[in-house]
Amino acid sequence: MSKAGFILAVVSAGVLGAQTLDLSALDKLEKKAKEANTVTFDAGQIRGAMALLGMVGESDKDVEQVKSILSGVKGLVVRNLEFADKGEYPMEAVDSVRAQIAKMPGWSKIVESRSAEEHDEVYILSQSDKIAGLAVICAEPKELTVVYINGAINLSDLRKLRGQFGIPDIDIHGQEPAKKD
User: Fold this and answer.
1) Assessment of whether the complete model's pTM goes beyond 0.85
2) 160 has pLDDT over 60
3) Percent helix, strand and coil across the chain, each rounded to 5?
4) Cα gap 163→138, rounded to integer Å
5) Is 126 in a helix, a strand, or coil?
6) Where would I find the H helices in 71-150?
């Protein structure tokens, strides 16, 4: 991972606003997981990391791209749990996150992909015709990933982040897989 990629991972998480998702159901699963990864940053941490971007020797273009992507983000949480065997986590944990999103005004499911082995969903929070939040749930037999972004983000910018920092590399509408650093 490049320095800009690492800093983006650090910057990418945060304090969530009024429509905060409660991911505590995932806390209980960490004990069962063979690997658990959590990235969480608040708005202040994001601003601090953005200030550091110019100091790490990355190109001005990369720095400006990261700053642009994160300019409207107040916070982001990435939770990734990997299990040794299929069926080690209860679907009720995933359903609790889905249920919260369904109850909150303004959230819409924009992508759903199901197969026998995987169920991926992307939700957006719309406020005044703008995207004010994004949630991604990727449930596989041995892995569960939840990404929650609080704040304005352009969906085309999100494509640039997929496959990095715990953000799933979901094939949406035939896009090529993201290039990894």
Assistant:
1) no
2) yes
3) 30, 30, 40
4) 12
5) strand
6) 91-103
